[in-house]
Amino acid sequence: MEHALSPSTLAELRRPRPYPAVSVLTPTHRREPDNAQDSVRLRNVVAEAKKQLEADPAVTRERRSEVIRELDRALAEIDLTYTEDGLVIFAAPGEHQVWSLARSVPERVVLADTFLTRNLVSAHAAERPFWVLSISADRVTLWDGGTDRVTESRRGGFPLVRRQVNFDAERLQRVGDMPSTFRDEDTKHFLRDADSAMAALLRDEPRQLYVTGEQAALSLWEEAGSAARHSVPVRHGGLAHAGADAVWQVIRPLLEAESRRSTASVARELESARNHKTFAAGVDEVWHSAREGRVRLLAVEENYRTTVRDDGDHLVPAVSGDLDSREDIVDEIVEQCLETGAEVRFVPDGALGDEDGIAGVLRY
């Protein structure tokens, strides 16, 4: 299953395809007893997708068979043991993808000439992805970080591994020059190579970068070059050879502190916007401002969800399943704001007070 949504991956997903490009969405659950019905719900929504393909006169028999075959392949790849809060299946002639999201999605089947990406975009923004680079003299390991985990990443040629230099300890003791591993020229070259590889990855997929290592390694890293200048050093050795849980336990307090700072910053910006009459709140007002490209900063409470329908002039409350109801309007707003260059910040539930879960700072 896919997790990492880079700009190039998103552009590829949005590429027009021969009709039909099928998007299948279903909410999933991480824990019992809520996850008991996930497998049944998944099979049912895939069956609904097949039913819609059968009923669509614009889909030829040959193309219908191709897409159904891809749906079956996608279904066979899914292990619900490792799902998060939402699951998205994309299927088109000759291809399929399965995405696990750390954000809930509405149950939905869409047949179009492009895949439905708004829920992926919103989940990616909410997850606040980051990189962790764990450095040592003989190994540099890259970790892909998200809401509640890190996983080892093979992107960018990582991990980088080298043989430890075999110093002649007896000779060096005789001449009184037992060097630090991190004064060794080969080690310096090794970390410069890591810096170059990380800098290239950051150009393709910019994120906050944390670098862990013992103090000598971090000092040498800071001399290395471009990626080092934009990284946050974390003095903790041994993680280049450690497991994901050990890395997460070190990084988690930093993320929590950053989240508190970010929430306080959002509150100050919203208060300033109120004073300057550049403030919008509530799903209807924010939606209209987003469509006009006026939102500079969008703030959304992490679990805020609402269902609406468009009455022509405004978005009004609706019940899930109603005709023309829009269950993922929050994700639509997030995607629209990102498309127009706005900053999107997710904050803890209740952080926006009386502003109904969503608010924005306007450009004008």
Concise structural overview:
By secondary structure, the chain is α+β, with helices and mostly antiparallel strands. It is built from eleven helices and 16 strands. 39% of the residues lie in helices and 22% in strands.
Task: Give the N-to-C terminal Cα separation.
Answer: 42 Å
What's the multimeric state?
single chain
Order of helices and strands: HEHHEEEHEEEEHHEHHEHEHEEEHEE
Q: Strand content of the residues, in percent?
A: 15-25%
| Rg, alpha carbons | 24 Å
* Helical run tally: 11
Global shape: globular
Write down how many β-strands occur, each being a DSSP E stretch of 2 or more residues: 16
**Helix/strand class:** alpha+beta
Helix-residue proportion: 25-40%
User: Uncertain runs with pLDDT below 50, 5 residues or more?
Assistant: 167-179
Task: Please state the average pLDDT score.
Answer: 90
Largest sheet, strands/sense/barrel: 6 strands, mixed
